[in-house]
Design a protein that fits this description.
Layout lengths: L4 E7 L29 E11 L7 E9 L4 E6 L5 H12 L2 E4 H10 L3 H11 L6 H13 L1 H6 L1 E4 L5 H9 L6 E6 L2 H10 E3 L6 E3 L8 H6 L8 H22 L3 E5 L4 H18 L1
Helix pairs in contact: 1-10, 2-3, 7-9
This protein binds BIS(adenosine)-5'-pentaphosphate.
The site of BIS(adenosine)-5'-pentaphosphate has 34 residues, from helix 1, helix 2, helix 3, helix 7 and strand 9.
């Protein structure tokens, strides 16, 4: 799990940090991930002892209370590139708090708040909702104690340079920025076939990920912006902004081939996250 506490014994001889090398498939272009500069090992002086091992030199062994820092992950990609689908799989395995800007906005719309009414005007046109609505909404969710304690998975945010800069100013820095790459013709097909289960929140696709039972099939809903016409506008907005956001997270970006099956996409992400955890 992302966050854990363990008591371990380590040999005192310190090894220099080894350069990062990826055992993951070549479709994942992993960046050089920085090793954490801050050490989470607090030496327990009282448990320091010399343990004589038979037939071997004496090693000084110390107890180390290691509190692993929670993961902080961003996931980005064009509309219907599979962000939400991968977030389901990532949170299931890594127990991170999933914060999706689009879901927060849809919740405001469903609650018929002033922010929700304003947001819908922009979402209908496939445009970005203004920062004064989105920035505080996401920042507040990030600052919740559960996000701080378990770590977070930020989905669909930041989507513009101004949002990325605002996060930086709040001191929010991710460990990894996942970019899902999917060709445009696949994206349109995924959008029009997407359906949502209002009871479980699970994402389905009529062709690629059909509902398990007729009961679920009967209650599926479609998002108001999931039409071919609207996805073209959403794609335009994405292409206009993605480069500027990427420029801020270049060193920690991992590009993932999102055009393969959801299990294969997850395998790439899982490999990157496991490696990241080892360095934390
Ligand atoms: P948002 O809700 O974030 O929508 P989006 O970015 O357009 O992304 P989607 O949710 O459509 O797709 P996804 O990548 O999650 O794909 P999914 O996993 O569902 O934003 C909506 C609007 O809110 C924006 O247009 C904007 O107006 C506003 N907004 C949001 N964030 C904002 C921000 N930061 N600032 C300002 N405004 C903001 O998958 C799609 C379908 O494909 C599903 O049916 C799924 O089953 C299927 N599928 C997924 N993976 C695979 C696979 N590997 N193979 C086959 N099928 C797959």
């Amino acid at each position: 799990m992302a966050s854990c506490c363990s008591l371990s014994f380590v040999a005192v001889s310190s090894k220099p940090n080894k350069p990062y090398s990826s055992p993951i498939s070549s479709s994942v272009q992993l960046p050089i991930l920085p090793f954490s500069k801050s050490s989470n090992h607090s030496l327990l002086q009282t448990q320091c002892s010399k343990i004589p091992l038979p037939n071997s030199p004496t090693f000084l062994v110390v107890g180390s209370a290691k509190k692993q820092e929670p993961l902080r992950i961003m996931i980005s990609g064009a509309p219907a590139s599979g962000k939400g689908t991968q977030c389901e799989l990532i949170t299931k395995k890594y127990d991170l708090v999933h914060i999706a800007a689009g879901d927060l906005l849809r919740a405001e719309i469903a609650a018929d708040t002033e922010n929700g009414r304003r947001a819908k005007e922009y979402m209908d046109k496939g445009q970005l909702v203004p920062d004064e609505i989105v920035v505080t909404m996401v920042k507040d969710r990030l600052m919740h104690p559960d996000s701080q304690e378990k770590g977070w998975l930020l989905d669909g945010y930041p989507r513009s340079l101004s949002q990325a800069v605002a996060l930086k100013e709040f001191g929010v820095q991710p460990d990894l920025f996942i970019l899902l790459e999917v060709p445009e013709e696949i994206l349109v097909d995924r959008v029009v076939g997407r359906r949502l289960d209002p009871v479980t929140g699970k994402i389905y696709h009529l062709k690629y990920s059909p509902p398990e039972t007729e009961e679920i099939a009967a209650r599926l809903t479609q998002r108001f912006d999931d039409t071919e016409e609207k996805v073209k506008l959403r794609l335009q907005t994405h292409y206009q902004n993605v480069e500027s956001v990427l420029s801020l997270y270049q060193d920690i970006t991992v590009q993932v081939d999102g055009s393969v099956s959801k299990e294969e996409v997850f395998a790439q992400i899982d490999g990157a996250l496991s490696q990241l955890l080892e360095t934390k």
